[in-house]
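User: My collaborator sent over this chain with a note saying "see what the structure looks like." That's all I know about it. Can you take a look?
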Amino acid sequence: MTVDVSTIYLLDVESGESVEAELRDAIEQAQLDDWQTKWQPAMFDVLRELARQGVPRSQWPQSWHWNWEQKAARVAGLLAFRGFSVVARGETQGLAQVDLSKMSREASQVGKPLVYVEYLEVAPWNRVELGKMPRLRGVGSALVTAAVALSCEEGFKGRLGLHSLPQADDFYRKIGMADLGQDPASQNLRYFEMTVDQARIFLEEE
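Assistant: Without extra context I'll predict from the sequence alone. Here is the result:
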């Protein structure tokens, strides 16, 4: 499989300087290795500290149990699923998995095809909600941009949908997605969509 690689730029939070990165339209073994050997130990360090401080589990990172090896294996070879990864400074900074088989729910575009973001996660050291200053900023936005661009390439005109973990709700509101409320069929997670017009505005701002 040929992997398309695009050059993007992230922000080094400490220095304020731009950092060159790769946006790859796949999740490869190298990214899964990084998840196993770098992300997992970093997340476990966070969880140990939260447990030491007596922080309730309900306030722990809501994606701490995600297993990217299992997620990638589950959809391997299925044409409806695609993966994206962001790589910078020699390590994986973010991962996303999307599904091309879902339909829109938002009133103005109901029943039309969209790119559904099944999973999106940035490396623990880039997550501000984990209590430390993130190293790099812009990883999540870069993955959303990749999903919107794929939607355009597929003829879906930028339409995007996803169920958000509560800790990420504000991020999706901030980038201009429509909040369609809690979905009882998906663990009461809030469902967000990006309409054609919202996608156009998002891409212009990015």
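A starting point for your reply to your collaborator: The chain has one domain: 5-205.
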